Structure formats: structure tokens, C-alpha cells
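Hey, sorry to bother you again with one of my protein questions. I've been puzzling over a protein and I'd love to understand its fold better. Take your time with it, there's no hurry, and the full record follows here:
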Amino acid sequence: MGGKKTRLNNIYQHIKSRCYNKNDYAYKYYGARGITMCDEWKNDYKVFKEWALLNSYNDNLTIDRIDNNKGYCPENCRWVSMKTQSCNKRNNRLVTYKGETKTVSEWAVELGIKFRTLHNRLYRSKMDVDLAFKKDKLYGNKITYQGETKTVSQWAKIIGISEGALYQRVFTRKIPLEKAFQKECK
């Protein structure tokens, strides 16, 4: 296997283990899915090390597979920050808006909306993307129901549902208020 136990050597050993060692905790996410290491790297640490050093390796970066369904090889690997790598996970939810596809967390940063707020708008309240991506206070809209006027936020708290769900019911789906104000609305 070669090489003293440096950070780079540890990365190499961990790649091999998660790809080939059925007892490795991460094997089910790698080897069991058919993720392998190319033979030139698998058989010679020095070849891997040479590639790493020629491809911007440093101790602040982590190895990242460009296509998460393909293995570890020079054509499919790169050195990136943890932030970049976290945006390249197969369990990330991708959202396309105006022809551009990004993760929910990337969109949240770009739009200046809290991640949890944006995530809830998209997946819990099932808002339309155009509506979910609006930074302005959607929920400041007023609703008059049974003679009382309150904001969407206020009514949502009273009913016991999310603001996004109530907003969707009233302003997007145009459900009559009697039905929209029920906790369970189909």
C-alpha cells in the first residue's frame, strides 16, 4: 500500500475501505452500490498521491466524486472544500428556478432566505417555486374570516397549521375560507 500515515494516505485508505471492505460502516453507501476505485489507484498509492498533488490537493480540501454514481478515478474526482462537497451529495434536493439548478441550501443563501423556511415552503407546504422564492413577507397578507381580519401568520397559529399551507390554500389554490381554515384540508 505504501506511504507513511499522512492525511492523504488516510484519505486513500478510507476510500479503499468504503469501496471494498464489507465491514466498513460506509460500505453500504459505496461498495454495495458498485462504487469502486480505478485499478491504477487501487493498486498503487503512489499513483493516487501523484494525481492528488498535481490536482490541487491540500489539507483543507476533501476528495469529491463529480458524479456520485461513478467511482473514484482521475476523471471523476476533484479536491474541493467541505461546503462544495456538501452540495454534491446524492440525497440533496435540487430545485430548478429560471433555468438554473441548485440545492435548497444554495438557493437559500443566494435568496437571503433561511434554509428551514425555504425547505418548508417547498416540501412541507408544497409551494410553487416562484412563490417560495419570494423574499418579501408573503404572510403579511390579511384575511378576513367570520368578521375578523388577521395576517396569514396569525390565522395559521390559531388554526394550528403552517403559514405556507394556509397561504397556499387561500391565495394559490383559492380554496373557500370555510374549508381552508380546517386543520385537515384536502
About this structure: The first helix runs from residue 7 to 20. The chain is about 40% helix and 15% strand. The chain has three domains: 7-86, 94-132, 138-180. The CA atoms of residues 64 and 84 lie 9 Å apart.
